[in-house]
Here is the input.
Amino acid sequence: MALFKAFESFKNLIATAGIVTLLSPFVAIAPVSAQETIPLNENLSFVRQCRRVNRTIEVFSNSTLSPASSRVGTFTAGTQITLTGVLREGRAQVYLPTTNNLIRVIGWVDAGALGPCGDDPVVTDLCYRADVALIVRDQPTTTSAIVSSYTSGEIIYPTTNPPTEQTSPGGSPNFGRVWLEVQPSPSVDGWISRTGTGGIGSNITPLPSAQCR
Here is the structure.
């Protein structure tokens, strides 16, 4: 009887050891690190809208427009492309349709390089609120002529949709500000500094389309 009990105890020990062996790999797995995510939005009013490329630009497979290995093509100045309606700030997802309605290339581009195609209807459901008093200049630089201004709280309308933006060089006098092309009145276009130096911060806040004209 004593021998039988000893044998049963040994079996239980082996079974317990087996369970530990099976479980231990799962216990040892470290949690998966969080992946970088970038907020995107879809604007249905932009779907299949035409845009003209204002300068030669690279097309990328992601909205960060980097690294170089993610480049999927090039659009030359004057090329007419189509918006998918998916956007992020300063970026637009686009595609190049062919004559038989196939898609030749789809990717992400700098929205600041896009302008209207011909007589496209003006889209007015994009606007911003000025968070501070802003000067409107005729060129995207702090030394160019002043053409208008916004008071804090005033509504700002960009000249294009997606908005046209330009980042100034990192040195003096602009120190890497991001500029937004705006239309303070039907007869006046100009540029405001959307950010502070180095592209940090924001002087404007996007508003819901219901608050735009």
